[in-house]
Structures are given as C-alpha cells and as structure tokens.
C-alpha cells in the first residue's frame, strides 16, 4: 500500500464516483450514527480526507493534497499527490476509515463503536471523499462557466460597448455643436436686428435734435434782433416819433411773443424699448440664474422697523405671518413702519448690479412680492402706501387664485397653470429690468423693463398665513 500511495496519477473526476468500502463487521450501519448525505462543504482549513486514487486503490488516512487543473475541452483533469501523515489510530492502532463530523477528524472503527466518537455522526471515508469530490466537480464547473462568461464579456460586450461609446460620443458632440451653432446664428441675427433698431432710433432722435436746434437757433437770433431794435427805439427815439412808431413797435412785440417757449418732448429722447428682445432677455435670465458664471442669490432678512402691526416677524427675521387678530398693543411708533397695509420691506437697498432672491409662498393664498422705492409712503390706508397701487412699487400679486403683476394700480393678469411654491425675483438695476420667475422650474412669470430712477428695496405683503425669505 505504501508504494501505491506514493504514485501520482491523472484521473478524470466524475460525479458518478460513489464507490466506498463496506462497513466493517461488528460496526453498526452508518445510518445508526447519522446520515452524511448532503454533508456541507468541508470547512476552511480542514485537510482533505480519504482520497481514492485513479487506479482504484484506496488509502484511508489524513493526507495533504495538491490539485492542479488543466482545461481540456469540457473535462477537468486532476493530479492528486498523496503523502501519508497518519495511517492508524493512535489510541487503537486501527485503520482510520471513518470520518467523524462532530469532531471533524478521521477515526477508526473502535473509536466509533465504543470509543470517543461513540454516538457521534460518522461516515465512511470513501463516502465523505465522494461528497467532497462532487463538490469539487461542481465548483470547477461553476468556475468554468464563470470563465466563459468573462471571456464573452471581454470579447463581445466590452467591444460592443466601446464601439457604441464612439458613436454616442460623436453624436453628442454633433448635437452640442449643432445647438450652439443655431444659438449663435439666432443671436447674431437678433444682435444685428437690435443694433439696426437702435441705430434707426438714434438717427431719428438726432434728426429731431438738429431740427429743433436749427429752429430755436433761428428763433433766438430773430428774438435777439427784435429785442435789440426795441431797446434802441426805447433809448434813442424822441417822444413824438415814438408815438408815431407805436404800430411798428406793437408788430415787433407781437412777432417776438409768437416765438413761444421751447418744450422738451418725447421726440427728443430715444424710446426705452428700442433695444428690448424677448429672446435676449430670456437668454440673459437663463445665464444669470442657471449659468456657472451667473451671480449668487443674496441673503435677505426683513427690516423689523417696517413690519406692519398686522404681521408678526419670526426670530430669524425671514418669515412674515398674517395676524387674524390685531395685537392689543401697537408697536412703538416708527416713521418707517407701515401702519395700515400688511406690508414689510427688507433693509438692503439696490442701486447697482444684478441681484436675485427667492420667497417661499407655498403656505399663503394672498401675498405680494416685488420691489419699491425707499420713498414709498408708509402711513395711512391710501393707495400711496399700498404695494402695486402707485408709481413707486412693482409687485407680483396672488389673490383669490389669480396671479397678476401690479404697478400704478394697473393689473396685468398672468396665465399660470398653478401657483408657484417659490417665487424668485431677478433685478438688473443698471439694465432697468425686473423679472419674476418660478424658482422650482426656472420658468419666467413676468418681465418688467423700466428706467428706475432711485434705489430699490425688496417688498412683501401677506394677507393669509405666512411667507418666508429662502436662505441661499
């Protein structure tokens, strides 16, 4: 047996290899000690037990095995090297031909019958080896299938993906270039149209100025000559002659009075809207709000001095809440405070640059958001202090499910599918542009172009629940 155990042979591992030795005489059948059918895979670190050689010989001993595999079609060839560690039980000097699952070791028949492994779950070594071989075969087959999947993934999927990547990247570049080319062409045409419109308006005003200049220069010369003659008549004419010249003097005076006074008219000023363009305005707003070079929204709080007694201000000075019942005690008098309308202003003045801020209006059904001049009246219940009802305030209003832009008591009603939850205000002070937008979708709600003549303050009014300045 020793010479056979040292032989190394190549054997094809088969799932049908289930041969094992008959149980020794006097030993109860294996089922009396517990069945090993379906025994789980040998635990990590345990030596391989009871290996059957390819030539059919058996060696029931603890062994150290090294298995090398070679891919030959669908067959798995294993070369098993056996080197004996222990052939016989140290306690009974009997052959180790049983495997004890309880102690995870090889034992002899006497250990099973009346020794330390009595009543343990035991299995013949050959059956245990067969189970292990079957697990090995399954594992090798799984590895082979996995290797095949990896090969297909490398040779087919990744190659196809690489080809598709080139196609998709090329299409994406073409799409970017095509869209930007369209934008450039459209912008160039719009630029040319606006520049020509500005040029025409400039030429018109210039012509009016030249005409007015020529007219009033001539009138000034005529008036100066008439005045000079009348002064000469007044100072150098004798009384008798002066009386005889009264008719001539009256005609000259009447002629001078007919010159009239010059009047500054709109014809002498360029029309403010000659450079307006919905396309340019929309692109500008998108760039300012969405572009990476656009400005950062500002951090605003309400000025407590301006808050109406009809409102309460949160501790962080960002939320205005309408009071259904007026406070029993009025706040201390302050000339900056609104005393009749539920208004409040922010403390920051804007007289240059581009700025934006957002107001959360989701909780309120009656509100106004916008801007006003600092000179807006604060006292009384007249329209002079009512946001949107005078020439000093511009607001977006929501009342009774209707959204409108208000200025000078005039309402421009907006077609909006649903009330925005957050309304943004974009102010370009030097560009004389005020834009209201839906902060969640970026949709422009209304745009105002107006030549602002004084610094502006963010302004709000609340007639139901609350609104909040959103912190950027």
Automatic annotation (TrEMBL):
Residue stretches making up the B30.2/SPRY domain: 280-472
Chain positions covered by the region annotation Disordered: 55-75
Domain of life: Eukaryota
Single GO MF annotation: zinc ion binding
Coiled-coil segments: 173-204
Keywords, alphabetical: Coiled coil, Metal-binding, Zinc, Zinc-finger
Sequence ranges assigned to domain B box-type in this UniProt record: 84-125
UniProt name for this protein: B-box and SPRY domain containing
Organism name: Paramormyrops kingsleyae
């Amino acid at each position: 047996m020793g010479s056979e155990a040292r032989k190394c042979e190549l054997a094809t591992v088969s799932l049908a290899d289930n041969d094992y030795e008959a149980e020794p005489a006097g030993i109860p059948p294996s089922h009396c000690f517990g069945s090993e059918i379906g025994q789980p895979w040998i635990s990590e670190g345990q030596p391989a037990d009871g290996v059957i050689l390819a030539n059919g010989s058996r060696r029931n001993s603890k062994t150290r095995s090294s298995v090398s595999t070679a891919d030959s079609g669908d067959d798995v060839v294993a070369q098993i090297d056996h080197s004996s560690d222990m052939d016989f039980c140290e306690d009974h000097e009997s052959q180790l031909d049983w495997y004890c699952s309880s102690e995870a070791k090889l034992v002899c028949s006497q250990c099973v019958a009346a020794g330390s492994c009595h009543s343990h779950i035991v299995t013949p070594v050959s059956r245990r080896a067969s189970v292990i071989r079957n697990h090995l075969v399954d594992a090798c087959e799984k590895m082979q299938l996995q290797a095949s999947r990896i090969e297909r993934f490398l040779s087919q999927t990744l190659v196809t993906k690489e080809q598709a990547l080139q196609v998709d990247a090329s299409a994406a570049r073409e799409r970017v270039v095509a869209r930007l080319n369209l934008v450039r062409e459209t912008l160039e045409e719009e630029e040319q149209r606006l520049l020509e419109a500005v040029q025409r308006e400039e030429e018109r005003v210039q012509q009016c100025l030249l005409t007015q200049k020529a007219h009033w220069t001539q009138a000034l010369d005529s008036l100066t000559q008439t005045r000079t003659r009348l002064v000469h008549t007044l100072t150098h004419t004798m009384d008798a002659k002066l009386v005889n010249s009264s008719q001539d003097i009256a005609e000259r005076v009447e002629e001078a009075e007919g010159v009239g006074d010059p009047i500054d008219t709109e014809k002498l000023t360029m029309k403010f809207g000659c450079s307006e363009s919905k396309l340019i305005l929309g692109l500008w707003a998108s760039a300012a709000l969405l572009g990476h070079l656009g400005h950062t929204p500002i951090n605003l709080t309400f000025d407590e001095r301006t808050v109406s007694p009809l409102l309460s201000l949160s501790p962080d000075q960002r939320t205005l809440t309408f009071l259904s019942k007026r406070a029993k005690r009025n706040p201390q008098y302050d000339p900056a405070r609104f005393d009749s309308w539920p208004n409040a202003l922010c403390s920051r003045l804007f007289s240059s640059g581009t700025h934006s801020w957002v107001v959360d209006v989701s909780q309120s059904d009656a509100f106004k958001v916008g801007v006003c001049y600092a000179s807006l009246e604060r006292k009384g219940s007249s329209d002079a202090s009512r946001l949107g009802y005078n020439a000093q305030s511009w607001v977006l209003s929501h009342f009774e499910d209707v959204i409108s832009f208000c200025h000078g008591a005039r309402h421009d009603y907006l077609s909006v599918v649903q009330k925005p939850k957050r309304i943004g205000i974009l102010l370009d002070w030097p560009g004389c542009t005020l834009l209201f937008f839906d902060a969640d979708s970026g949709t422009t709600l209304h745009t105002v172009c107006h030549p602002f003549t004084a610094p502006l303050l963010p302004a709000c009014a609340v007639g139901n629940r609350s609104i909040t300045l959103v912190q950027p």
